[in-house]
Amino acid sequence: MYALDDLTYDEIREFRYAVERQALVLAVRNADAKGKKELAKYVDGILNGETEEIRTESDRLLHSCLVRMSGNRLVIANYLALNRCINRFIHDVRKKILDQSREEYEEFQLVHKNLAEAVINGDLEMGKEALDQHFVFITKDINT
User: Fold this and answer.
1) Burial level of 123, CB count in 10 A (0-12/13-18/19+)?
2) Is 27 exposed, middle or buried (0-12, 13-18, 19+ CB in 10 A)?
3) pLDDT by residue (tens digit) across 82-128?
4) Run of H or E including 42
5) Burial of 63 (0-12, 13-18, 19+ CB in 10 A)
6) What is the pLDDT of residues 24-40, one digit of tens each?
7) What is the pTM assigned to this prediction?
């Protein structure tokens, strides 16, 4: 659907924010036990994965799960259409944050935990705050 390998990080980030913001609203409303369990599993992988590769994959899967939990086929299809670009973006951003500051990296990890907990607990405001914090991190660290 999208043959756009030369997308800029800003374009990918802006797309992700728009899609994930709406996905969050829908996921909080539509969250079921299976989705909540998946989110918790991915948070565990982000926080406790033995390698950065495992933590990165868990990060990718957490965001993908959040989008799937929206239940909106158009939101899901558009997100998945750019999956290759998004995956590369996630890898690059995580590496840059880790290389710059271990403290910021740990804070970035906790933002994912807060995002998942918000969906699990049905707290949309907490979710919006966590998602906004997430995008502040990735905006700051990819552009420096």
Assistant:
1) middle
2) buried
3) 887 788 888 888 999 999 989 999 999 999 999 999 999 999 999 99
4) helix 33-48
5) buried
6) 999 999 999 999 999 99
7) 0.89
For the chain, the straight-line distance linking the first and the last C-alpha, in angstroms and rounded, comes to 31
Which run of H or E residues covers position 28?
Answer: helix 9-30
What superfamily in CATH does domain 9-143 come from? Answer: GntR ligand-binding domain-like (1.20.120.530)
Locate the domains of the chain by residue range: 9-143
One-letter identity of residue 90: I
Element (H, E) at 105: helix 102-121
Residue pair 93/141 in contact by the 8 Å Cβ criterion: yes
H/E run at residue 116? helix 102-121
- Helix 52-69 with 83-100: angle, nearest 10 deg: 130
The candidate with the shortest Cα–Cα distance to 19, out of 76, 90, 87, 88, is 76
